[in-house]
Structures are given as structure tokens and as C-alpha cells.
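Table S2 (text version). Query chain:
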Amino acid sequence: MSIDEKSPETAPSSRRFPPGFLWGAATAAYQIEGATTIDGRGPSIWDEFCATPGATRGGDTGEIACDHYHRYREDIEIMRRLHLQAYRFSISWPRVMPEGRGQVSAPGLAFYDRLVDALLEAGIEPFVTLYHWDLPAALQRHMNGWLHSDLPNLFADYADLMFNKLGDRVRFWLTLNEPWVVVDAGYFRGTHPPGIKNPAEGYQAGHNLMRAHAYAVACYRGHQCDGGRISFALNTTFSFPESRSASDQAAAERAMDTFGGWFADPAWSGDYPAVMRERLGPMLPEFSAEDADLLRRSMDFLALNYYTSDIARYSQDSQPFEFDRIVPGHLPCTEMGWPIMPDGLARLLRRLHQRYAGLPVYITENGAACPDNADEHGFVDDQDRIGYLAGHVAAMAEAVADGVDVRGYFVWSLLDNLEWTEGYSKRFGLVRCDRTTLQRTIKASGLWYADLIAMGRLPAALVDKPPVAPGLPAPGPVATSRCR
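Corresponding C-alpha cell output:
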């Protein structure tokens, strides 16, 4: 049932969000902090990867990024102007432990200590991610990174350091950001560091990532932080079956089991989805009984990063899981080439609500890269981004009205920042960051979001008819060509 079909009695609840709902924005350390060589920070695998000629568009690096390390107070003032109630950021492991183990950097710890205090003084809830892909380079050089069976223990040591330092003030923690991307880009396709193309090693890296999550969660729960909660950030899509055939329906289920289920199922039930065990055989590592016990129910909430969805169809030729993912060619796309599919978010939220019953949900990333054009004052009238965000907030509201326990929403991203291998060519921010001066300018989308937060509810017109991103083609007949 769509929002349009809801009865007058249920429509108001679809427009107002629950008391205590958190509206926020998100960033990641390497993408915004800069200051990569000062105050004792060690290099990360992303520092070394970006220094490789041709690795990133334009040779862009995070050496300066948005200089958030020095400008964090300015950025918090912008958050306050946007009425943000929460801010999701990540800690740079090599900033606080330059070698990834052993020596601790006092200036690095002090930075995050100041950041958390400043956020709380501004009335903004800190939402902390421990690992957003910037592994200390020393651990990659000397231990082969996430392929080493001892790395989860070192991650737990690092996590313990941060829990001891910030756990008295930080109530929300994420161990890992998008382990699927770490494996897919870093070990299957080789487009992110460490640049490996080896499926067997990819599954081993993913296995150790989940062990690291489990060990960090066990450590956190041992601290008995009153009211604190911990999880990891899951990225996934909703896969629409291409047809009503049983084979396509089953293919869509396999597509979702082997994407989101790959990492969420172990943190819920202690093991991978059955279809992965059946079809990957010995390529998929086994959890020890102790690790399975630690993994089971190691999510206090479900943190969902959502950008797009896809279509799945049965394909006997696509082994071992026998499905193809299809990007629908009839839909408008963001600058990343991702089709805009807010209905996928509503359907995905319902599916996750059923599969992981009882877990509250925070949407920890949702946003769009758009072809921003600034005027002479640096202002960006990004109506296309507003259309994207409005459609997805409306879809989230529909899921809330259907009983899904969604408790927060974070826009990616607060600032235009380093979009990994795309460099600074792709802009997601609510706030423009001028690449020459680093001057911050709130965009039209930032002003729109501030108004939404101030109201705490969706305008009735938005619920009745969620917008299509302006300036992009409207939906047409179903197609299976790739989005360009």
C-alpha cells in the first residue's frame, strides 16, 4: 500500500516522526579532516592509495580535505544553524594509534575529546564510527591488513581505547562502516585499498571484519555504559524481482541475502545466510563456536546506509548465486549513476523490520551527488538534491506509519568532501566547501533540511505526492538497461 492509499485516520502519523527522533548529518574522518601529517598521526591505507598516480580522479587526496581538524568549531556552528540534533563522524584509527597498535597519540585523542565536548555543548548528539575504511598503513604493511587473523583483536584494543576515552559521553557507537564495500571494492574489484582482486581473500577479509565487530561489541558491553548502544553500518539495496516468476522472485531473495544478509545475519544469528554457506562451500570461512556466540545479537540497533536499489533476475550463467543485478534505465539518476528509488527504501525498511525483529533502525546515511553550480556568492540552489531527500524522507515516513521502528535519519553528507576515488568531483554536501578557500556555504538543501528538522514533520503535500528530482527524466516504462 502506498502513502496515497492510506486512510485519513493513519495519514497524520505518516507525517510526524516519533518523539526523540534524531535528525542528523554524517561524515568520515579521511574525507573531511585533513591534517594528515601533524600531531603524530600515522598514514592510513587511503593516504598511501591516494598517493599512487592514477588512483583517484585528478590525483585528489585527503591531505587537506575540508580541514575539519582545524575548523571543527566552525563546522559545529553550521550544524547548530542547520538545527542538527545528531552528528555522525568517524575516528581516524591512525590519528589516535599511529601504528595501529602500541603507542597512543595524545594529541589525536585530545582532538576527539574536544570534538565530543563541543558537540554536546551545542546540544548535538555524537554518533561515533570507529572504522570508516582508514586502516593504519602499518597494519597493512606488516600484517596484511584484514587478512590477518589477529587484526580483530587489535581492533578491539583500539575500540577499548576509545570507549575508555569517550564512553562517558558518547551513547551511540558504530564499529564498522559498510564492510560490504571494504570487501567488494578492496578485495573483489581492487578499486579501493588494498587493491586486491581475489574472491577467496575477500571472503576472509569480510570474516575478520565481522570478528572485529564482535570483539569490539563484547568489549563495549563489558564497560557497562549506561544507556549506550552499539552496532555497525550496513549498506544494502532492495532488489525488485524483474518479473512475477518464481525464479525471479527467488533470485531477488538471493540478491538481498548475499548483500545485506552477508553481514547483518552474522551479527543477528551468529552465521552467514544459508544460501552463502550452500553455494560458496569452503570459500566461506567458518566462525568458531565462541565467535558465533559473540556475534549473535551484537547489534543493539540496525544502522542502514541507503542510496539506491536494483532489479534482480534469474541467470543460470551467473554463478554461484544465479542472479543478475540490473540497474533500471528508466529512472532519474544521481551524479554517481545510481537510480533514485525511494520506494526501495520503504520496502527495504519493512523487510529488515521483519527479518531482524525488534531492532530499532537508524538511517545512518542517505544522500545524493548532484551537479552543483554555485552562484557568485557561493550559494548552490540544489533543487535536485532537495527532491532526492524529500522523496526518501517521505518513504521513511511511510515505513514508520507501517510500524517500522525508525528512530533517526542522517544525511550524507554535511560537507562536500573527498568522495574516495572520485576525488572532489562528486558533491554530496548540504554545505558547499570551496576547494580553494575552504569557505563553507549552506546550500538550498541545507536550508530545506533545517526547516524540516524545525517542523519535525513532513508537509502534507510531500506525503501526498513525493517529488521527483527536478531537471531529471520522470519515470517511464520499466527497462533493464544500465543507467547512464
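Notes on Table S2: The longest strand covers residues 125-131. The radius of gyration is 21 Å.
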